[in-house]
Automatic annotation (TrEMBL):
<dbReference type="Pfam" id="PF00144">
    <property type="entry name" value="Beta-lactamase"/>
</dbReference>
<dbReference type="InterPro" id="IPR056008">
    <property type="entry name" value="DUF7586"/>
</dbReference>
<dbReference type="InterPro" id="IPR050491">
    <property type="entry name" value="AmpC-like"/>
</dbReference>
<dbReference type="Pfam" id="PF24491">
    <property type="entry name" value="DUF7586"/>
</dbReference>
<dbReference type="InterPro" id="IPR012338">
    <property type="entry name" value="Beta-lactam/transpept-like"/>
</dbReference>
<feature type="domain" description="DUF7586">
    <location>
        <begin position="346"/>
        <end position="421"/>
    </location>
</feature>
<protein>
    <submittedName>
        <fullName>CubicO group peptidase (Beta-lactamase class C family)</fullName>
    </submittedName>
</protein>
<feature type="domain" description="Beta-lactamase-related">
    <location>
        <begin position="21"/>
        <end position="315"/>
    </location>
</feature>
<dbReference type="InterPro" id="IPR001466">
    <property type="entry name" value="Beta-lactam-related"/>
</dbReference>
Amino acid sequence: MPEPVLPSTARLLLARTARVQRDGRAPSLVAGVVRDGGLAWSTGRGEVPGPHADVQYRLGSISKTVTAVVVMRLRDEGRLHLDDPLDRHLPGTPLGDRTIGQLLSHLAGASAESPGGWWERTPGGSLPDLGLADTDVVLGAARRFHYSNLGFGLLGELVARQRGSSWEEAVTAEVLAPLGMARTTPRPSGTAAAGLAVHPWADVVLPEPEHHAGVMAAAGQLWATLTDLGRFAAFLLGDTAGVLDPATLEEMTVPAGVDSSAPGWSAYGLGVQVLRVEGRTLVGHGGSMPGFLAGVFVDREEQTGAVSLANTTSGLDPLVFGLLADLRGAEPRVVEPWSPSPSPVPLESLGVWFWGPAPYVLRSVAGGLLHLGPLPGRSGRASRFTRRDDGTWLGLDGYFAGETLRLAADHLDLDTFVFTRTPYDPQAPVPGGVDEGGWR
């Protein structure tokens, strides 16, 4: 069980939530913060129709992340690759030459919405019912980030065909049930909030329709409680319960497409949003459907998360980012103490190396990794590396992500770059050689 927040912190979080609910005129709003695997604090404001942590609200696009988890499970099982064209697994669409990875990252150039009526307010049918045409491809592949509900509808259909079941059955069996999210369902079940629109100029409300979105369900169909959404936040923080390999979850959080229309630093990984907010990198997803707004974001470095659910169509200021900031300020994470650990390479291999005349430092870091980067105070390329079975080192991030580092006694070989112990060491295999006249 997570340790509850301090009373003073609870007051701070409650004050922020209450103001957002009042100023945003949300008929009801439930929110909480997550650490140690579950809700450490939660509350409900407005006319919540039951115990605030057990009332269902519609998640909207958070459903996309759940869909993406199943796609990544299929990849890990070897049933598909992210570079596979869609047509290999879901033939007959105008997006057949776009890859699965591009669809997950909103880089496939698919139309933002499905053809026909507004899918979020009208019942949906099967994939053939959409009647997709070439006009549903609006951009070239990998040209730019373009958020696409249609793309995730197609991914949901891919999941269904790979598993020989419906999308709902697949995500329930492979994600929701193993994570203990028993109150997360495709349609409202048990106590659930009614979707409402709030008039812009008066304090009156209008019911929004609820329906099954058909093939578009994978883009926004799920309903969940605050408790279940908190469990999903814990999943995003690394408590995967065997649903996904932690390395795969980490892979999903690497930014691929950048949303240049968003203020600040905003990107999309594989089915998750990756945002830079007040100097922190946050991972998760927002959600909206007519009558509902939702959010789940986590700070993986701080190991905290925040979740919110409201039954209003629009007009609510983001809450989860403020809750994370409040929690971090009031109860900052106390990190584990540093302790010595063996170097994964001989100590004489570490220290200063030169790329041409530029000094770099190779050092060992926690987890048996190596880090190669410029001297402090200097600019340059930096990456972490993990050891392969053959003795080489694989770049994990930064400029050299995916590249191979080889260590020799007198030089480092990295993607055609050679690092030497002295600037342009004439005794090392410097590409292009070293002028015989030397430095002068």
